[in-house]
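Predict structure. Chain length: 245.
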Amino acid sequence: MTKHPSPADTSPATIVPPARPEITAPLALGWLHTARFLTTAPQLHFLPPLSVPEIAFVGRSNAGKSTCINTLTQQKQLAFASKKPGRTQHINLFALGKQGVTDAVLADLPGYGYAAVPKQDKIRWQQVMANYLVTRENLKAIVLMCDPRHGLTELDEILLDVVRPRVEEGLKFLVILTKADKLTRAEQSKALSIMKLQAGGGEVRLFSATKRQGIDEVATLLWQWAHPDAPAAATVPVVNTTPTP
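Prediction complete.
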């Protein structure tokens, strides 16, 4: 028996878009502005077990990590930038969420690769970071800071190798090319193209705190990653009204 659609099947009144407005940069930036200090840990076992999504910021010392975090959260001194790069050797967690309700966490990992740090400290922190990136259960995304004038260093490459299995399993990954204002437009375009090839399927964004470049894009991306179950932007789906024979 041939079934034809009933009038209710094709009525425009039954097409209900998701009840949520499109994600905008002001919404994402307002969310990031709620960032507040949660805790600091010199070792992994001092980190509290959390169930909310965690987004880790990593990068070589002097890559602009602290500046990027402070710019995104619109707070001048949230992330501590040491006068002696590489000396800050704690994992700092910042809670996010309005009305004091935490719905995500930012993790600021120590900068790595600075020459003045003793070799044994470098090795110890490389192990701590690797263990964190591999074992932290609520880790949902990694943001790697990279100065595009220098490109990926050997330590950056090692980090990429460590996280690649988790990225292939669905962990979100973003490379932020900091200090983009130091490059010409042609150099920015070239750096972006090169990094997209090296990022292994991850996202890549140009960023400049000075020129306010890339802030809206990065903020929106982080909000989406921290709220994966939120409905998509309101769109009206196309309904096929042709009867099925």
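Summary: Helices lie at 7-10, 25-32, 65-73, 119-135, 154-168, 185-198, 215-226.
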